[in-house]
Design a protein that fits this description.
- The chain has helices spanning 8-26, 35-52, 56-65, 77-90, 95-107, 121-132, 136-150, 167-172, 177-183, 195-219.
- The chain is mainly α.
- It has a single domain (8-219), classed as Hypothetical protein af1432, CATH 1.10.3210.50.
């Protein structure tokens, strides 16, 4: 295994290349996994990494590349991870750092709550950063964007919220934008890995609860 160490200039150059790569790959995505999602997750990861005294380079690079490997955006999880692996090799990211980024990319998705825990502090930080963008005002916006992308209804009061799901059912089963709040978003606050992530999640979680309350009032014309 390589033990090459990057200086700050080399790290900055790799980060810039990763930004360009992700803009090219995800710039036209309409499912809520576009470049601006990556931009926000990277900002969240940077903020948490600084507060938690983690490896900033690994956190930034993994945040930038995390959705390149997402199986929702690839023919398979393996194909997505291979794309990340190829990019890391082509851009001469040392093996130790590349292995960390790949591990993070391969285990951070929610997958109906079935994924194994993150193995490193940097992985836990990037996972928190991604989950923060799934809640609050931005999480609400992305939920409805993704529901439209998948052809799901906004709300169907007769469709029960799913409680026990396989990964396949979570990905492909029938749901709605509103049900997704209960199937994932409202669970994320209590799944944050870091103290900083937990603190950032509190207000966003409360905003979603306020939003849902208003949504139901307007749905039934009681507002």
């Amino acid at each position: 295994m390589s033990f090459t160490f990057l200086d700050k200039t080399s790290e900055a150059a790799i980060i810039a290349k990763a930004e360009a790569f992700v803009k090219q790959e995800l710039g036209n995505d309409s499912s809520g996994h576009d470049w601006w999602h990556i931009y926000r997750v990277t900002n969240n990861a940077r903020k948490i990494a600084l507060a938690e005294n983690a490896n900033l380079f690994i956190c930034e690079l993994a945040a930038l590349l995390h959705d390149i490997a997402d199986e929702k955006l690839n023919v398979s999880k393996e194909a997505g991870l291979q794309k990340v692996k190829n990019w890391l090799a082509e851009n001469q990211v040392p093996e130790t750092e590349a292995a960390q980024v790949l591990e993070i990319s391969g285990t951070m998705s929610y997958n109906g709550g079935k994924n194994q825990p993150m193995q490193t502090q940097e992985g836990r930080i990037v996972q928190d950063a991604d989950r923060l963008d799934a809640i609050g005002a931005l999480g609400i916006a992305r939920t409805f964007a993704y529901a439209g992308h998948k052809g799901h209804l906004m709300h169907n009061p007769n469709l029960a919220v799913r409680t026990e799901m396989t990964k396949e059912a979570y990905r492909n089963g029938e749901s709605t934008a509103i049900n997704h709040f209960y199937e994932k978003l409202l669970k994320l606050k209590d799944l944050m890995n870091t103290r900083t992530g937990q603190e950032m999640a509190e207000q966003r979680h409360a905003f979603m609860e306020t939003y849902l309350n208003q949504f139901y009032h307007e749905w039934e014309a009681t507002a």
